[in-house]
Amino acid sequence: EIVLTQSPATLSLSPGETATLSCRASQGVGSHLAWYQQRPGQSPRLLIYDASKRATGIPARFSGSGSGADFTLTVSSLEPEDLGLYFCQQRRNWPLTFGGGTKVEI
Amino acid sequence: EVQLVESGGGLIQPGGSLRLSCVSSGFNFDTYAMHWVRQVPGRRLEWVSTINPTGGATYYEDSLKGRFTISRDSSRSTLYLQMDTLTAEDTAVYFCARGSSFGGGEYFDYWGQGTLVTVSS
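^ Those are the sequences you sent over. The predicted structure of the assembly is below.
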């Protein structure tokens, strides 16, 4: 099973700042990685797939990078609505696995 | 508009069974893989099971094999999860999710609102 480790656990920032979230895989996953946002009380929403491709309707201030075992989600010009949990997920191997999440506080 | 609406959750005693349902609309159900994902209290997400568009292939998290069964009914555009021999460790919000049209259907591009399953005596 591929284990995804996200850091930091919590990120406290102010509006307008840039959030940098990390996801590290226990083995290489190529570019087969996605990022999801979960706002309080809501279901997760797909932000990024294949490490760097934005899903439909996702603003350009969300960007993903990385390949192999190290990945980064960058959220620039933070807005109050960006608070919540962010998860990475790999599809390189079964079982599909998620990281433990990063909580973004604004 | 894509919509996924789960139902069937509730309070169940250890050892009991539940069947979750997920009614889909706004897309051609027959052409997408479908998934169940659960979220334990706190925050961790855990993939549970996947079924391919035809229902001919199913996948399960290893620890759930033999207890959980995923199925789909194209005539009703509905996804199911039969859960047997439930334990406290199965307590979670269960989400139905559509597999993306990219990435082999193994990303989750639409999610339902979730249904809470609580296993307790």
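Chain A has a mean pLDDT of 96. The CA atoms of residues 6 and 23 of chain A lie 4 Å apart.

Shout if you want it in another format.
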